[in-house]
């Protein structure tokens, strides 16, 4: 699987076609695109935290979903109407209120469906804080 978009192209696409993810400021940053993989950094703001000082589940779910979308687009090109058809997430550990990284790997990329695996971790912890699987529907060309 060879990526067809660069980090800059993907950021530009998300900025113009999916600006909602940056409504209250940029918190998602693509840090790497490799064959079959996209890595995205999430810098949680105060609104992404739960009482007790942990990153919220909905914020981690959003990270997995946006990273999966970015992984699909990085490999098929700027197709705005690729949509999530399923996303399952397991929360494994309480993440600290610090940056979180999602490594999203494409397991299968077909003409109509993509299946992905998302590992969410914090650098200093060295352990997964969450794991997700996603399926995306790809519209006909």
Please, could you describe this protein's structure?
The protein is an alpha+beta fold and 141 residues long. It has a single domain, classed as Thiol Ester Dehydrase, Chain A (Roll). The chain is 22% helix and 39% strand. It contains 2 helices and 8 strands; from the N terminus they run αββββαββββ. Strands 1-2-6-7-8-5 form a 6-stranded antiparallel sheet. Strands 3-4 form a two-stranded antiparallel ribbon. A hairpin with a 3-residue loop joins strand 6 (100-109) and strand 7. The two termini are 19 Å apart. The mean pLDDT is 93.
Task: Describe the protein's topology.
Layout: H1 7-17, E1 28-34, E2 37-42, E3 49-50, E4 54-55, H2 57-76, E5 83-91, E6 100-109, E7 113-121, E8 128-137
Antiparallel strand pairs: 1-2, 2-6, 3-4, 5-8, 6-7, 7-8
Beginning-to-end CA distance, first to last residue: 19 Å
Report the CATH topology name.
Thiol Ester Dehydrase, Chain A
Percentage of helical residues?
10-25%
Inertia-based shape: globular
CATH class category label: Alpha Beta
Number of domains: 1
The named CATH superfamily: Hotdog Thioesterase
CATH architecture: Roll
Helical segment tally? 2
User: How would a textbook summarize the main sheet?
Assistant: 6 strands, antiparallel
The whole-number mean of residue pLDDT values reads: 93
Supply Rg.
14 Å
Number of E strands: 8
Poorly predicted runs are none
Strand order of the largest sheet: 1-2-6-7-8-5
- Broad structural category: alpha+beta
Give the SSE string. Answer: HEEEEHEEEE
Strand composition percent: 35-45%
């Amino acid at each position: 699987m060879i990526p067809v978009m660069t980090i800059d192209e993907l950021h530009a696409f998300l900025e113009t076609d999916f600006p909602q993810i940056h409504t209250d400021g940029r918190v998602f940053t693509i840090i790497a695109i490799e064959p079959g993989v996209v890595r995205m950094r999430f810098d949680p703001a105060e609104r992404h935290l739960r009482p007790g000082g942990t990153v919220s589940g909905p914020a981690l779910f959003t990270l997995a979903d946006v990273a999966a979308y970015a992984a699909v687009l990085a490999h098929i090109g700027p197709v705005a109407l690729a949509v999530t058809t399923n996303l399952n997430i397991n929360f494994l550990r309480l993440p600290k209120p610090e940056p979180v990284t999602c490594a999203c790997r494409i397991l299968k990329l077909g003409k109509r469906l993509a299946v992905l695996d998302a590992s969410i971790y914090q650098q200093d912890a060295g352990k997964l804080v969450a794991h997700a699987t996603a399926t995306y529907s790809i519209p006909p060309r």
